[in-house]
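Reopening: C-alpha cells for the flavin-adenine dinucleotide complex, inputs below.
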Amino acid sequence: MTAIPSHLISRITDIVGPDNVTQRIEDLHCYSYDGSGRSQLPELVLFPGDTGQISDIMKLASSHRIPVVPRGAGTGMTGGIVPVEGGIVMVMTKLDAIVEIDTDNQIGIVEPGVITAEFQSAVRKKGLFYPVDPASLKYCSIGGNAAECAGGPSAVKYGVTKDYIMGLEVVLANGDIITTGARTEKSVTGYDLTRLFVGSEGTLGIITKLIVRLLPIPAYKETFLLTSTSLRRTTEMVSEILNHNIKPCTLEYMDKTAIGVVSGFMDNPPPDTTQALLIIEIDGEKSVVSEQAEMFKSLVGGQEEFILRQASSQEEVEQIWQARRAISPSVHKLRPNKIGEDVAVPRSRIPELVEFIENLATELNIIILTFGHAGDGNIHVNIMFDRSVAEDVKRAEKAKDQLFKQTISLGGTLSGEHGIGLSKKPFMRYELNEATLGLMKRIKSLFDPNNILNPGKIFPA
Ligand SMILES: Cc1cc2nc3c(=O)[nH]c(=O)nc-3n(C[C@H](O)[C@H](O)[C@H](O)COP(=O)(O)OP(=O)(O)OC[C@H]3O[C@@H](n4cnc5c(N)ncnc54)[C@H](O)[C@@H]3O)c2cc1C
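Re-run output (same inputs, fresh job):
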C-alpha cells in the first residue's frame, strides 16, 4: 500500500476544490465500510462534481498508481466499496442530476449519484415507470445499481438493472471518457460494452452518466399475501404459479424466522402457525389483472395448507412492503452478526435449496433465515452468528461454504444481485473454471493495466 504524496493531494485538491476533499479521520471512517460490515480506511475521500474532474483525477491516479474506489451510497452487501488497498474513495453523490426525462421516447438520462427511489418518483410524475426496485431503493444510488446490476421484487416480471441500461458515459482508469450504447431501442454499433460495465463492480470504469429505458405506468395492481403451514408447499407453489401462466410482478418469499422478525410491522400479522409466506402482486390493465387474479385464486383455493388474503387498502400494501423491506436491517435482533448471501437457483430447485438450508441450520445448531425474490429463484440466506464467539464464527463460515457448494450443485449461481466484491471472491472457483476466470482477468487488465480501479475485488487469490 503506497501513501499518497502530499504534492499529489494538493493537485487533487486543485481539481475538485478544497471543500470536496477530506482526510479527517472521522470522515475516513464514514467512507470505510458498506452494508457487508467490512471496513478499511481510505487515505483520501473525494466528492467530485463532474465527469471532467473525475477524468483529471484518474489521469493523476493512473500515472502515480493510486488505487481509486468509486462509491455510490455504500449500501452494497459484499464489501465492494471497501478500499482494501488504501488510496482514494471517490464518492459519486454530487453527480446527482436527473438530466432529462424524454417522455416521447420513454428514456431517462441520469447521473449516477441519484437515489433510486427519487428517480422513480421523478419519472412517475411524468407518467412513466422505472421498475428496478431493490429493497434498499430509498438509500442506494442508480450508479451503484448499475455497477452491481441490482434487482428487486419486480424482476420476476420486469427484469433487473441490465435490462434498463441502454447506454453509459464512463471514465476509464487512464482518464479517457467513453460512451457506450445509444438512446435508441436498437444499436449494434460495435461490441456491447454497456453490458460489460453493468455488474462490473467499479473494477472496469467509473460510470458518470446513464441512459435508462422507461415504461408506461401499469394501470392497476392487486396485492396478495399467501400464508402457509407448510414450508415445502410454499416453495413448490412458486413454480406452480408461474407454470399456470400467471405472470405476477412480485413473487416474494419469507420463511418463519423472517416473518418473526418483521411481523410487528403489520397490524394484521400472519397466524402463529405460519411456516412461510409469499407476497404476490399482479399488475397491468384492469381486465388482465382481474383475469390473472382469478386464475391465482382458483389455483390456491381449496388447498388446506394455504390461507390467501388480498390487501384491501393501500395502507395494508404499504405495511406488507415495509415488513418485507425491514427484514435485512431487523435480523440483528436474532444475533449480532450475519453473513447475508443472495444465491440463485433455477426456480424448480428452490424447495431442495430451502430444505437443505433448514437441515444445515439444525446440523450446525445455528440460526439461518431465508427470504427473497423466489419468483426468479434468488433466495436471500442470512446466517446469524456472534463474531465474538470463535465457535459461532466457525459454524457460520462452514454454513456459507456448504450453501455455495449446494447452490452450484443445484445448477445455481453464487450471487443473483449483490455481486461478488470481497465476500464471495474466495468461492468464485466453485462456479467458474480457470479459463473463464483467466478471460475475465485479461479483460480487467485491458481496461485497467495498472490495477488501480477498485483493486482486490471479484478475483480469488
Ligand atoms: C437493507 C438492504 C437491502 C438491499 N436489498 C437489495 C435488493 O433487493 N436487491 C439488490 O440488488 N441489492 C440490494 N441491496 C444491496 C445494495 O443496495 C445494492 O447492491 C445497490 O445497488 C448498491 O448501491 P450503492 O449506491 O449503495 O452502491 P455502493 O455500495 O456505494 O457500491 C456498490 C459497488 O458499485 C461500485 N460503484 C458505485 N458507484 C459506481 C459508479 N458510479 N461507477 C462505477 N462503480 C460504482 C462500487 O465501487 C461498489 O463496487 C440491499 C442492501 C441493503 C443494505
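The longest strand covers residues 220-228. Residues 34-35, 69-77, 80-81, 92, 112, 134-136, 140-141, 143-145, 147-148, 150-152, 201-202, 206-207, 328-329, 417-418, 454 surround flavin-adenine dinucleotide (CB under 6 Å). Marking as resolved unless the reporter disagrees.
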